[in-house]
């Protein structure tokens, strides 16, 4: 999606006149109008109603443009940070499981454009140390499964993913369209070890069969024991295993968050947060607009 086209659309929403809006950006009305049309084609919806003497926002436009404004605000924050001659060139990023999943390419791309010298280093986290790695300084930022219990840190929730049951491929549950914890009955579970809040996410009354420290261990533990596991939806793509099936499981989603020191305002840390916000906003622009106009 063309960022300049977003700027044009926001200007047109303010001016509600193609000639005046084009003049703000010092281009002719005809190429300005083509950029707006191209943006609408990419989105699959009309953002503006036009007549020979009047321009107005459509309902889709009224929903889309505030999101576009947030995207641009985050990108501009990234560019301002890039202008600073900061000596920081490396950022240690702790990641639990699949982390930010399909958003990683967008985050790297945003940082690469605006902070070309910033190098991201990967540190594997587990459920037990996901918060402590920030507290001890092992990592600068952590991408965690937010289950509470970290009031001393700055924890920003950035993505919710539907939870899935991880069941043995030969199980009678493997082909169910969806499951509840009650459907599983008294079967034992493969559960995450760590913060107390994880138990609340899984649900009350489940039978603990075995605990694992890492999300990546869940499919193998399910295959080994025949127990039932639990994961967020991106695990289907990031942690595939021929011996398990992922089945939608009703209940609270898996909340992915970015955690840093409560008062950490280093440029690299702020840049990473801004890139995550911008990627989240970009990720939501088209689906949110299309879903609400269906």
TrEMBL record:
One of its GO terms (cellular component) is protein-DNA complex. Signal peptide: none annotated. Keywords: DNA-binding, Transcription, Transcription regulation. Residues 1-58 form the HTH lysR-type domain. SUPFAM superfamilies: Periplasmic binding protein-like II (SSF53850), Winged helix' DNA-binding domain (SSF46785). InterPro entries: LysR_HTH_N (IPR000847), LysR_subst-bd (IPR005119), WH-like_DNA-bd_sf (IPR036388), WH_DNA-bd_sf (IPR036390). This is LysR family transcriptional regulator. It comes from Nocardioides luteus. The lineage of its organism: Bacteria, Bacillati, Actinomycetota, Actinomycetes, Propionibacteriales.
């Amino acid at each position: 999606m063309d960022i300049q086209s977003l700027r044009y659309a926001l200007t047109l929403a303010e001016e509600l006149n193609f000639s005046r809006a084009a003049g703000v950006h010092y281009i002719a009305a005809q190429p300005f109008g083509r950029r707006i049309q191209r943006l609408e084609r990419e989105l699959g919806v009309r953002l503006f109603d036009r007549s020979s003497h009047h321009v107005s926002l459509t309902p889709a436009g009224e929903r889309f443009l505030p999101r576009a404004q947030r995207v641009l605000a985050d990108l501009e924050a990234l560019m301002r940070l890039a202008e600073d001659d900061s000596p920081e060139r490396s950022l240690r990023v702790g990641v639990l499981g699949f982390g930010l999943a399909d958003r990683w390419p967008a985050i790297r791309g945003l940082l690469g454009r605006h902070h070309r010298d910033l190098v991201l280093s990967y540190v594997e986290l587990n459920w037990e140390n996901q918060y402590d790695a920030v507290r001890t300084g092992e990592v600068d930022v952590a991408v965690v499964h937010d289950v509470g219990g970290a009031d001393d840190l700055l924890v920003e929730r950035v993505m919710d993913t539907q939870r899935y049951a991880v069941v043995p491929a030969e199980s009678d549950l493997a082909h169910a369209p969806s499951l509840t914890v009650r459907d599983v009955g008294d079967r034992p579970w493969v559960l995450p070890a760590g913060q107390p809040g994880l138990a609340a996410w899984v649900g009350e009354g489940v039978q603990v069969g075995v605990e694992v420290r890492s999300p990546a261990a869940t499919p193998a533990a399910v295959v080994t024991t025949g127990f039932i596991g639990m994961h967020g939806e991106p695990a289907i793509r990031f942690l595939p295993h021929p011996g398990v099936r992922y089945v939608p499981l009703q209940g609270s989603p898996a909340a992915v968050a970015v955690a840093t020191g409560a008062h950490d305002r280093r440029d690299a840390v702020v840049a990473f947060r801004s890139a995550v916000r911008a990627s989240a906003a970009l990720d939501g622009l088209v689906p949110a607009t299309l879903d609400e106009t269906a």
